[in-house]
Design a protein that fits this description.
- The protein is α/β, with parallel strands linked by helices.
- The chain has a single domain, classed as Vaccinia Virus protein VP39 (Rossmann fold).
- Helices cover 37% and strands 23% of the residues.
- The chain contains seven helices and nine strands.
- It has helices at 3-15, 22-33, 52-55, 67-75, 112-129, 145-164, 175-184, and strands spanning 39-43, 59-64, 79-82, 95-101, 130-142, 187-193, 205-206, 217-218, 225-233.
- The strands form two sheets. A seven-stranded mixed beta sheet has the order 3-2-1-4-5-9-6, sandwiched between helices. A two-stranded antiparallel sheet has the order 7-8.
- α4 links the parallel β2 (59-64) and β3.
- The longest helix has 20 residues, at 145-164.
- The protein is globular, with a radius of gyration of 17 Å.
- It starts with a helix and ends with a strand.
Amino acid sequence: MDPSQFFDRHAGEYHGTDAGMRAVHELSAQHIEEGIAGRVLSVGGMWPRHSQEVISNLDLTVADVSAEMLRPHREAGLSTALDDARALSFSDASFDHVVLPLVLHHITDQSWIAARREVHKVLAEVRRVLKRAGRVWISELSVSRAIYWTEALAAPFTRLVLGFADIPLVVMHSAEFYRSALRRESFGDLHSYYPDPPGGSWHDPIRPIIGLPWLKVPRAFYPVRPLVLSATAAR
């Protein structure tokens, strides 16, 4: 199953909804934008709820495997690149910052085990294109360790069920896995931020699956915790 084709079909849906997580996206965007400057690469589209004022002051490039996902950014005048996060077309040491906004859980190759391997591939490419002491920013939905291993056992069945709707497998990783992967790929100075908005309720409705826009569940039924990680590339 080709993720680029899936996102080409569902780009309008993706760009047209906050999936019930507007407050989370705003906090995440604010945290990222307080830390980035200079030449920035955002891989997998733009981080949701980004500030037009902030990005207008950046030398920003947006990369994605889907041409339709890139279309709004290209039409807004941003530099874009049709690129796979695991094999970026940019030269070594090209960027001051790289942002991975809600993209790593989509790079799975239809397998939980492969998904872990692919995260390492992406981080190795990110480190390659970062300048010395450049920083990576990972905005993701993390899960607890117990749910992570339950997800691993359920992955073949999950892939089968999602396949009936022509939806690729997604894998939500744990915060511990992301930290371990960053260290193994020679990143240091790790920082974690949890964009938990005040006043949220367990019964707030969210849309957990791109491709099933009619599906809404209470937040308590979707046991993920938003996370923003940042780390410095070592050379």
